[in-house]
Specification:
The chain is built from 5 helices and no strands. It is 50% helix and 0% strand. With 109 residues, the protein is mostly helical. The radius of gyration is 17 Å and the shape is globular. Helix 4 packs across helix 5. It comes from Massilimicrobiota timonensis.
Length: 109
């Protein structure tokens, strides 16, 4: 998956320290967290703040932000590694009314 250039040095250093192939998750000290630890921390943080929060929600946020940045849906599908574009559009793209504001302003210019 493509990553922003700013993360290359951070991840290179991380993989020298932790040569693993698991998903990359860090604590505040930049030490490796297992996937299960990251999932548990997200869930507990949500509960502490009075709402349900699941680690998988970050995938939904990632895809939604791609679409909000006006990147085409096919690119979003490929980045999310969905085999079906309908999964990307119908399940992972979570737009709301604020995303519609101003959309038609320049439609006929």
């Amino acid at each position: 998956m493509p990553i922003p250039n700013e993360l290359v040095d951070i991840l290179t250093e991380h993989f020298h320290k932790y040569p693993v192939t698991d998903p990359v998750c860090f604590n505040n000290d930049m030490n490796y967290l297992s996937y299960k630890s990251a999932v548990d921390k997200c869930y507990k943080l949500g509960k502490k703040n009075g709402f349900d929060f699941y680690f998988h929600m970050l995938r939904h946020t990632f895809v939604t932000q791609i679409i909000r940045k006006k990147i085409d849906i096919k690119t979003a599908q490929m980045l999310a590694k969905h085999s079906n574009i309908n999964t990307t559009m119908d399940i992972y793209t979570n737009l709301d009314d604020t995303d519609l504001i101003g959309v038609t302003d320049n439609l006929y210019n």
